[in-house]
Amino acid sequence: MNFNGLAVWLDAQNGLYLANVTTPTEAFPWTSAPAYLVRDNDRAYGHAFRSRVRAMGIRDRPISPGSPWQNAYVERLIGTVRRECLDRLLIFGEAHLRRVLASYAAYYNQVRTHLALGKDTPLGRAVQQSGVIVAIPILSGLHHHYVRI
User: Lesser CB count within 10 Å: N end or C end of the chain?
Assistant: First the structure.
């Protein structure tokens, strides 16, 4: 099977996961697969992909053709990843892309504040009351983590 794509998924306990995958089995970090796969109708999801997903016990739920609003959360997240990360970096191959996505996912879950979470991070963080503020560069200075030491 030849499938190359960006897998994006949200886990309520562990935050955001991003991966460049070649098979559906690479896309899930858990020991058991999710019950449903909501996806668009891209031609990359051929017969082999659908067969593998079905064999894994996942119910395939493609959205209606030409209806990205049916998958609004993922479309928003992919747009955020593109705007805040991928549009600003040159990627030099699959291994580099995997490192960049892993670094961005860690930043997104542990450092980046979210208005919907009351300006906290998905994994939470302690409030630092005193100390000198230091900027720690992330993704070669594309983003920064500000901490007190």
Answer: C
